[in-house]
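Summary for the steering committee. The consortium agreed at its last meeting that each partner would contribute one worked example illustrating the joint modelling workflow. Our contribution is presented below. We chose a case with several input lines so that the handling of multiple components could be demonstrated. No manual editing was applied between input and output; the record is shown as generated.
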Amino acid sequence: MPSFLSVWLGRIGRELPLLLGGLAAVVLVLSVPMSGYATNIVMQATTYAVAVLGLTIVLGYAGQITLAQAAFFGIGAYAVAIGTVSLGLSFWGGLLLAMAASTVAGAVLGITSLRLGGHYLAMITIVFQQILSLVLTNWIEVSHGPDGIPGIPRPSLFGYTLSGSAGYLVFSIVCLTAVLIFVRILKHTRLGRSMEAVRDNELAASVAGVNTYRVKVVAFTLSALLGGIGGALFASGFSYVSPDQFSLAESIVFLTMALLGGAGSALGTAVGTVLLVLLPESLRFLKEIYMAVYGLSVILIMIFMPEGIAGFARRLTRRLRTPAVRPHHAPALHLHTVTSDHRDEPLLVVRGLAKHFGGLRALNNVDLAVRRNNIHALIGPNGSGKTTLVNVLSGIYKPTAGKIAFADEDVTGAAPHVLAGLGLSRTFQNIRLFRSMSCLENVMVGAQRPGNDLSDVHRDLVARSLAALHFVGMGDRADDSVANLSYGHQRMVEIARALAANPKLLLLDEPAAGLNLTEKQELVALLLRMKGLGLTILIIEHDMPLVEQVADSITVLNFGERISDGQPEAVLRDPAVISAYLGEGRAYAVA
Amino acid sequence: MDILLQLTFAGIGMGSIYALVALGLVLIYRATSVVNFAQGDFAMFAAFLMVLAHLHLGLPYWASFLVALAGMVAFGLIFNYGVYYPLRNRSYLPVLISTLGASIVIQNSVLAAYGPHPANLPGALSFQGFQVGSVFLDGQYLVIIAATAALVLLQHLFFEKTIVGKQLQATSQDKEMASLLGVPVKIMIAITFIYSAVLGGVAGVLVGPIIYVSIGMGGAIALKAFAATIIGGFGDIKGAIIGGVVLGIIETFGAAFISVPYKDAFAFIVLFAFLMVRPQGIFGEKIAEKA
Amino acid sequence: MRYAFTTTVLSALGAIMIVGAAHAADPIRIGMIAPITGGAAESGRNQINGAQMAADEVNAAGGVLGRKIELVIEDDQTTNPGAVLAFSKLTSDANNVAFIAPVRSTQVHAIAPDVLRNGKPVLFGGTDPRLTQLNNPWFFRFRPNDAISTKAMAEFGIKDLGKKKWAIIHTTDAFGASNVKLLTEALKEQGITPTLVQGFTSNSQDFTPIVLAVKQSGADIVASFTVQDTDQGVLAKQFRQFGVDAAWIGSPTIVATTTLKLAGPALYGTYALADYNPDSSPEATTFSENYRKRFNVQADFFSAWTYDAVKVAAVAIKNAGSTEPKALREALLAIKDVPGAEGPYSFNANGDGLHGYNVVRNQDGAIVFVKRVETVR
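What follows is the complete predicted structure of the assembly.
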């Protein structure tokens, strides 16, 4: 069974309360007679919520801002309006058109704009929003101009027309429940985890094998799609669309809805939407000043409820929840092992590598060969170019000159996620974890790298990740949030994340930094155990005793150039190495 | 030829308005890395203060101007402590939303307090403009162009020659470092907001006589001002000025020779093109590689 | 517990829906949708003033059927969805017997399906001719529609002013777009094709390109359809700055109170088609005087049509002898030559009540009545 199916089927059971909630809403709508006003409000809240759930994906999961959700909502609404009224399609035809149009629009905008982030993305989406408003107003032949399009029909289903308010409302609630469950489950899929990884730490996500750009585009497109579906439901529900319903102001309202509810939580988003649909309505008694009060509430929410209602509810219920119990026996970590006839053959070969930043030559003509199942140490004084070299090797920097071959393949200039896919994993000197995720989820992002030897089954992914956590001694903390861990434990989780990817080559950038003596000894043992699994390790380290204990060979850099290379004993006696360290004034006695 | 000159003048005139609002935007961005979505409403608020003082209380023009600016000082202070300060340690997003909320609050408070009627604010000078050949130079546009130039010069002197200006610069470049060097960062940021509010206020008072004083006057201008700052290079003062003028000229010519209803689209299409091809803007540094 | 939100919200809504029973001595309630906030908030205030004044006058004269008239006002935020919500809120109260709908045609279009479903008379001010051609029996228009105004405009410009070269400037919104079409047709009937037709988006801050195009076109008359008073003001100022001296005839905004205040001398000498003018009839004069006395501002068409709507509704309720929707509808359709501030009301089968337009002239800031053009109904 493919992974996504197993996740979906496994998760759907957990969404039972939500299904029941949807059912209860349906029963309520069918049994309680509602005035037209109440129907309109509920209809608005329901259809808006579908669109705002798109923001849960793009903003909540993937951490990208968009101020164009009303534009996609409008594209969906207009697709249904034009499809049914002008082209004579059925509602379902219009809905397909809406989904296609919003998906294409979202993908195109995402592909062109997601290489930039933050304020720029905010601006681009505003621009898109404004241009759409102008087009809807002025392209009269197609959009019917500012008059809008009235008389949009409602669908019929199994021969039963949903033209009545209650029937259509039931249909909308069913759609919303389905979308809500979809968005909630998405969070626990490979894609959802990749999105959250991108949100928490884009760089770490990319070296863990996540194609960050593609994940962002997918998130953006999915979000646009949900916007389109919401718009389609809205158009048919209100049977009338006009350009001013899809303005920038509406996009801002959508964004506020997501933030009020807590963008990262699908359920919170839905609650936020309902509240913000009701809020201006319930504030109507304020007449002239009610919009001012609305604006003030937005500011207060931002200040006092940073994670929205969902975050607030989480804090309240935290104490009530019992932590899940994990099996205490440690499943063995099975990684590929190097067969003895491959041992000591070169795995990574670097020739004439250079990296210049403007006039600064951080690396110059560096040669390096790392042999299979060896621990190879890279040492050198501060500023000698070690971290730059690791950054070039892991694809974060493009080399200025030189060749890199990995497992007999030329990988010069390859992107980080491509290298990760080929089996190159790394850790960072300043730890880069996905801070809002649990230990297990962090490691799973590593385990799910493309090209891993795992089957496509979710259970295997979890098993491998737990095994990796146990291997580094963090098995019992699997469900803890990484943000609560000590520094040393965070390091271990980061190593486990790299380990779970079953790398051919593991790059460790100063793993001993900030560790106390006991922890360092544990690290030495861990390194040797990892070697025992058949791994190849390239380690940057300042701690010479540690290096001596583990290294099979050493390369020394100084001022961006290789000054020594070979067996530890020979290298550490090399006069060039000694003078490099002493010249720098470091009081390190070479053994 | 006359028509081209006339259009160019109109473009530069509108462009100076965008530039003036963009100036305040850039200052706040440099000090706090926040894009202030209420900057246009600063202008609107000041223009209404001016209307109140000059038209309703009957104060002389320049006295009213001082009253309006004094009002903006208080306004900037309140904005700093009410909208920005509580969120200063969070990511850009909550602050951005908070300024959007502030924009709604400002517009609707003025609506509730003053009522919906737009007002006709007289210009700083009584002359209507010059006729040069067949080209008409609107007096108030000339005032705006002159004022923008003067403010840029003044700002330059302030930043480069005064201690407070240098401290502000330090704050905007590296808050932590500035703090270590004994710069009172909190006060500097408050000053930035006050200064931006005053700048926005000057823009509002100057623009009022041209497009009238109305609740919505700031919104449309602010959006163009954003576009101007990006075209010029975000955070770059001379970029914002040139971006504003370029934008004004492009949209005026676009309207004249391509389509009037799509006038606003030209500005945005140019912006889009910039973001695609040269996101760092005309004067911006190349966006740094991440490490 | 976490899943209970839908339930909570729905039951909260249930509470809103509970409707108290009506008592005989209760006032007759007329629901009114008006922009209290948003871009048209200013005209909203005038509309409410006009309606309130009419209700007070009716009540002072003893009310209708022994009951007072009471207005229930909801804000439409100057948006279409706002109008839809406001209307549904008003219709959810069964005590509201008739409704005053917005003056913006696009908002009336937006609520049209709900109006049909609700089945009670809706008195509106939108002037898009199609609104009374929707086969919606509950729509009653209290302003002359645009087909009438543009016909009057063409006739006055060509016959009275003797102008042949027309330039048309319009907003690209519903109002402007439909008027351009109608005026072009009306001119065509007189054998004239406009030399320039130029649209713009509302809230333009600069009109230099348009004004230069008008100047170049050599037009001897400009017809303008604008919505925002600020647009009208800037346009006027720039026309004068660039020395355009063509005759100018505009939609009602050109003589709206605020526009006159904003533009001042720049609009002197212009003509307007105005559905309301204080000098067009004795009723109009009385309304104007009373309105000024009460609100201390000049009455305009916004206040005039809502005033008429409430007044005529009161007459119809009295004639019908009940507030039952069908009877009320018949009574409204039977209204013939009932004088109002906007002119004499006679409803045709479509629900159009007015059939004439006033031509007025801005005489140094004062709006002077020129003539009334009645068309066949």
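Chain A touches chain B at residues 65, 112-113, 116, 118-120, 122-124, 126-127, 130-131, 134, 137-138, 202-203, 252, 255-256, 259, 288-289, 291-292, 294-299, 302-303, 306, 391, 396-397 (CB under 8 Å). The two ends of chain A are 57 Å apart (CA to CA).
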